[in-house]
């Protein structure tokens, strides 16, 4: 076990993948000598040379399209979109080609490629640097969508993503890049690709979170414990494939569920989770499944982002509305302002 | 149009050598009037001082981020001097000096980088589009605006600023093609400062010069020494005139250099050496213009002092105005999503209100 930041863990995963498999190529904007704006590719060009880790011309559709061709040609590209919103020029390539090639060709062509995207906010970034864009990808059949919340998961999920036969959109929560954790790089641990992890066991309610809101959920659970409420925290780890079994088992046990996402709420991943829980756990639920999300607004400017981002207090407010006292919160659900 | 007319000069157009002496410019370009060159000098002095102030404010935590244009002042100022007040400008995040020079309130310009809001000035009143971060996307907006002006019978011109890296984006190429096909009165002004963050020009493009990107679209193009204000202004004057008088779009590439890191957050030592930066110090656009104007007896020592005094005053005001946190009303987050907030946004506003009460 070594202690690494998430950025360092990702760097280690790329390094190990490059070392183990000659077909792995890393490219994108500023990933070469600079090592990426978040230093995730630090030192890779130096160690593996310009042929294996290189800067591309500045064009995201080009980066993804080039990766498609290289993957068709037998390589395993791991590409970087510099920030969430700067992947949008590549959306056509992703939605029309990356996601569909296997299906279009009846499996004759597959695209083992990884699109790494630093995403979400909480770092005081100006506009276009803080979008939570996971729902666009999760909504696109044919894409696996992954988002780690710990350094160890960052390492293993990225290794698994690179080894996967299908394209993976690998979403890295920016604000967790510098958070440190133990990693077992080189020494395989249990939770696999496609499995959610129960990070904290509890009896009273389940908090389901992924990526940037996992630490928020844990913080809320700590605070709730001080008030005598015992919350379970489930970290999805992979949004697609979705681990119904782990989520359902947790909610059937606790009977209550709050889904937490940083993204704007409307038509988001949290809505999917809430629907799935409701469909599978209806008779176990003592209260409606609630969502805690960002607002349905363009990501705020830096000085206002704290008003937008779901924090432990917003989560605890939701937990309080889970009808522990048998009083349905009809007023709130009807919307006080409308 | 014949190929020869469209092609840029094989070497960048230059009026003033690095040491400030006049050189013979290629035919077809006029030396701008002395008054405008003097005005250009004064604005460059203020612009550079403003830029330095903004960098300092970033170090003090007063700005979230600042992309400096130090070394690019000839481009920043000539771009603005070439336009009329009723012309439109479509700038990038790096063009704050140009906007301040156009007379926009510095606090409003810096609102984006200060983190107060996404655009602090009124684009309609100033005829300046919001500073654009998604690279090259503004160039096609500029074409649309140019077409709009023409449809309305106005003789305004639109200038779109873009960097060297941005010219690799698909949107730039679509914009060139649209502009040419529509005959839109738009000037594409490429500030080739040799880097896109860490990526040097050589990795960006194999073209002999970025100005050659125009010919494939049928766009008249030129390349110019971007650290020679006299040349940049002369070429942009010609480009704007060409667009204004129905000649269609024009592409100008200015060869310049980004003296500072990409932003305060960047570490340029990772990808370029000091000697390279020092070589470009010798090509400094401001010193060059000063020498040129002084040797011609147009610029006096007193006028130079006065320009620096004015710049100090300007910077002091900026410093003072930015010395407090920007005002921010969290409820404004819900105000501009739509003309009228949806019921859901009103609910969310109420939720935030209840959170803020606790
Ligand atoms: C579509 C898009 N991709 C990536 C980025 C991230 N980014 C911001 S500035 C920059 C470099 C731009 O270089 P250039 O066009 O030369 O302009 P300069 O910054 O040198 O003025 C990059 C890659 C972005 N803003 N937009
Ligand atoms: Mg550049």
UniProtKB/TrEMBL annotation, chain A:
The keyword Oxidoreductase applies. One of its GO terms (molecular function) is oxidoreductase activity. The keyword Manganese does not apply. InterPro entries: THDP-binding (IPR029061), Transketo_C/PFOR_II (IPR009014), Transketolase-like_Pyr-bd (IPR005475), Transketolase_C (IPR033248). Its cofactor is thiamine diphosphate. Residues 4-179 form the Transketolase-like pyrimidine-binding domain. SMART domains: Transket_pyr (SM00861). CDD domains: TPP_PYR_E1-PDHc-beta_like. Keywords: Oxidoreductase, Thiamine pyrophosphate. Pfam families: Transket_pyr, Transketolase_C. This is Alpha-ketoacid dehydrogenase subunit beta.
From TrEMBL, chain B:
The keyword Oxidoreductase applies. Keywords: Oxidoreductase, Pyruvate, Thiamine pyrophosphate. It comes from the Bacteria. Pfam families: E1_dh (PF00676). The keyword rRNA-binding does not apply. GO terms for biological process: branched-chain amino acid catabolic process. InterPro entries: Alpha-ketoacid_DH_E1_comp (IPR050771), DH_E1 (IPR001017), PdhA/BkdA (IPR017596), THDP-binding (IPR029061). Residues 42-315 form the Dehydrogenase E1 component domain. The gene is pdhA. Its cofactor is thiamine diphosphate. This is Pyruvate dehydrogenase (Acetyl-transferring) E1 component subunit alpha. One of its GO terms (molecular function) is magnesium ion binding.
């Amino acid at each position: 076990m070594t202690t690494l930041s998430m950025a360092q863990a990702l760097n280690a995963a790329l390094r190990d993948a490059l070392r183990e498999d000659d077909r792995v190529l890393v490219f994108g904007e500023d990933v070469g000598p600079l090592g990426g704006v978040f230093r995730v590719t630090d030192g890779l060009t130096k160690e593996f040379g310009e042929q294996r880790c290189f800067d591309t011309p500045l064009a995201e559709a080009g980066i993804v399209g080039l990766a498609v061709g290289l993957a068709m040609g037998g390589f395993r590209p791991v590409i970087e979109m510099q920030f969430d919103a700067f992947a949008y020029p590549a959306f056509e390539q992703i939605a029309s080609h990356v996601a569909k090639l296997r299906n279009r060709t009846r499996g004759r062509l597959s695209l083992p490629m990884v699109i790494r995207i630093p995403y979400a906010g909480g770092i005081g970034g100006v506009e276009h640097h803080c979008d939570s864009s996971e729902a666009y990808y999760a909504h696109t059949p044919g894409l696996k969508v992954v988002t780690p919340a710990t350094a160890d998961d960052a390492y293993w999920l990225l290794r698994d993503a690179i080894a996967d036969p299908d394209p993976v959109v690998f979403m890295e929560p920016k604000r967790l890049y510098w958070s440190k954790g133990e990693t077992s790089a080189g020494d395989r641990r249990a939770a696999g690709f496609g499995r959610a992890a129960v990070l904290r066991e509890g009896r009273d309610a389940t908090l389901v979170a992924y990526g940037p809101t996992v630490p928020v959920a844990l913080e809320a659970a700590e605070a709730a414990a001080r008030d005598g409420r015992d919350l379970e925290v489930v970290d999805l780890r992979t949004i697609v494939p979705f681990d119904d079994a782990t989520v359902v088992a947790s909610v059937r046990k606790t009977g209550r569920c709050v889904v937490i996402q940083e993204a704007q709420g409307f038509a988001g991943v949290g809505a999917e989770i809430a629907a799935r829980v409701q469909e599978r756990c209806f008779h176990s639920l003592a209260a409606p499944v609630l969502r805690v999300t960002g607002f349905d607004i363009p990501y705020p400017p830096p000085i206002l982002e704290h008003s937008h981002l779901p924090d432990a207090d917003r989560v605890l407010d939701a937990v309080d509305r889970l009808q522990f006292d048998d009083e349905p919160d009809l007023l709130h659900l009807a919307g006080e302002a409308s | 149009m014949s190929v020869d007319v469209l092609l840029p000069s094989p070497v960048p157009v230059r009026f003033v050598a690095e040491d400030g002496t006049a050189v013979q410019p290629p035919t077809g370009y006029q030396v701008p009037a002395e008054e405008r060159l003097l005005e250009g000098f004064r604005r460059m002095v203020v612009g550079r001082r403003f830029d330095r102030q903004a960098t300092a404010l970033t170090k003090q935590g007063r700005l979230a981020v600042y992309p400096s244009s130090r070394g690019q002042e000839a481009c920043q100022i000539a771009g603005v001097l070439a336009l009329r007040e009723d012309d439109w400008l479509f700038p990038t995040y790096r063009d704050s000096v140009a906007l301040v020079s156009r007379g926009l309130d510095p606090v409003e310009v810096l609102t984006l980088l200060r983190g107060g809001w996404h655009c602090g000035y009124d684009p309609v009143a100033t005829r300046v589009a919001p500073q654009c971060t998604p690279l090259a996307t503004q160039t096609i907006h500029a074409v649309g605006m140019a077409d709009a002006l023409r449809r309305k019978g106005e003789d305004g011109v639109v200038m779109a600023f873009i960097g060297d890296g941005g010219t690799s984006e698909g949107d730039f190429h679509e914009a060139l093609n649209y502009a040419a096909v529509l005959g839109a009165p738009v000037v594409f002004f490429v500030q080739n400062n040799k880097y896109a963050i860490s990526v040097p020009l050589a990795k960006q493009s194999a073209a002999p010069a970025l100005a050659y990107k125009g010919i494939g679209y049928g766009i008249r193009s030129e390349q110019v020494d971007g650290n020679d204000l006299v040349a940049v202004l002369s070429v942009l004057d010609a480009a704007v005139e060409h667009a204004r008088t129905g000649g269609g779009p024009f592409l100008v590439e200015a060869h310049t250099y980004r003296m500072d890191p990409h932003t305060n957050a960047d570490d340029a030592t990772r990808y370029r050496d000091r000697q390279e930066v020092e070589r470009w110090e010798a090509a400094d656009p401001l010193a060059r213009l000063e020498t040129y104007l002084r040797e011609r007896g147009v610029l006096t020592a007193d006028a130079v002092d006065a320009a620096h005094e004015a710049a100090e005053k300007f910077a002091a005001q900026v410093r003072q105005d930015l010395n407090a946190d920007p005002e921010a009303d969290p409820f404004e987050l819900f105000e501009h999503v739509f003309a009228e907030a949806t019921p859901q946004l009103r609910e969310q506003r109420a939720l935030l209100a209840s959170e803020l009460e606790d």
